[in-house]
Structure formats: structure tokens, C-alpha cells
Amino acid sequence: MNHYKIFSLAAFIIAILASASMAQDTSSLPYMNPRLSPEERAADLVHRMTLEEKASQLVNQARAVPRLKIPSYDWWSEALHGVISDGVTEFPEPIGLAATFDVPRIHEMATAIGIEGRIKHTQHERAGHSNIFEGLDFWAPNVNIFRDPRWGRGQETYGEDPFLSARLAVAFVTGMQDRTPQSTPVIHCTPPSRSLTLERLPETKSSSCTCSFPTCPVRRGAHSADFNGSIWSPGRARRSSFS
Questions:
Q1: What is the extent of the structural domain holding 15?
Q2: Of the candidates 158, 189, 185, 186, which has an alpha carbon nearest to the alpha carbon of residue 173?
Q3: 24 with 105, same domain?
Q4: Rounded Cα–Cα distance for residues 44 and 32 (Å)
Q5: C-alpha distances out from residue 94 to 62, 91, 114, 190, 203, Å
Q6: Residue 27 sits in the same domain as residue 42
Q7: pTM score over 0.90
Q8: Distance CA 106, CA 101 (A)
């Protein structure tokens, strides 16, 4: 009986050491290598995931995959006219913003929103969690064309004119992503409206991320998708005055 207990304990210790060894080995796997392209890293990571692990990424509360060092991540954050969080700037509803017809100012506003979004995300990460409204993927802008008040959510849109809505949507998305030469990019990616993608407007393209899983090291803190789907490095958020 004692021999059986000793054997069981030894097997348990070996299993723990093997697990630790496997966890350490992930640092040398292709998906953890920043020298490879994001497409190569994403393909390698997805190939290593089980069906259950892949399915766990198909909801806004994407689950962690500890064995692959993939942290949990929540897709659902909103910033239609300011980040939904405490201690941030709140701007007018989009229907009011559209009434300004001021494309450059919408871009400037979105840049400020993007910086605040990055700051809030960093604060939440330092606190050790990633919950709803704490990520870097924002369900904004809403580019539905508002022509029937019975819909009830017209205040979230830029109104009834497709051309104006398209121009303001482009200004908003590029402002959130902040790709001006003198600045550092702030936001990973700004997904379009939930019910009408930017791809459906002739003046714009979808800003969806190239990497399928926002939780993977390929995206979080490493790479992001720009307005036409190519890859760039985000860098750090810069200081800015919101006055």
C-alpha cells in the first residue's frame, strides 16, 4: 500500500513538472514570436486550439486558454460619444454631432475618446481583470441611416444622409485609431455598427481586426488592424489635453 502511495505521489509530481515544462515551452512557439507576421502567428495559434477552445472565443466574453497563455477578454466596449466608463469625457449624442457638419472636429473628438479608452483599458489591466466595457474594441460608430423615428434609436446615428454619415464615420474610426504621423496609435481596432457594417457604404471599408481572436498575443499589446485591414504596431498612448 505504501509503495502504491509513493508511486501515485511520484506520478503526480511528474505530471505537475510536465505541465510546467509545457507552459514554459509556449514562449518558443511560433504564435509567440513577434518576428513572424500576424497572419502566421494567428494561424499557428488557431491550429493549436481545441474545438472547445475555439468555440469559447465566439462570444463577447472570450474565455482564457491558460495552457496557451491566452488571457480572457471581453469584446463588448462602447464609445459612441465617449467611453462608457467612470471619469471620462462625455460628448453630445451623434445626431447632435452630425448637426455640426464638422468632420475635422469629429476626428479630433474621436482621437480624445481613443486616448481615454486606452487609458481606461490599461487601468483595468493593471487591476487584474478584463470585463465588459474594459477592452479595446468599441461598438462604434453606429452608421445606420436614420429615416424612421419609429426605430427609436436615431440619436445614436449621424442622421439620414448617407454621404454625411459616411464622412463622419470615417473621421470617427480614423480618429479612434489615431494614425496621424506625429502621434502614436491608440486603439487596437474599432468595429463598425452591430447592425450595418462599414463595408456596406461605398465610401468606407470595414475596420474589423485581422486576427480572429482578440485575446491572443498576436493582437493584445502587439498588433492591430488599420482602416483597410493591414497591420501596424500600436505603441503607447500619448498625453493629450481634452480642453
A1: 1-32
A2: 189
A3: no
A4: 9
A5: 29, 9, 16, 16, 19
A6: no
A7: no
A8: 9
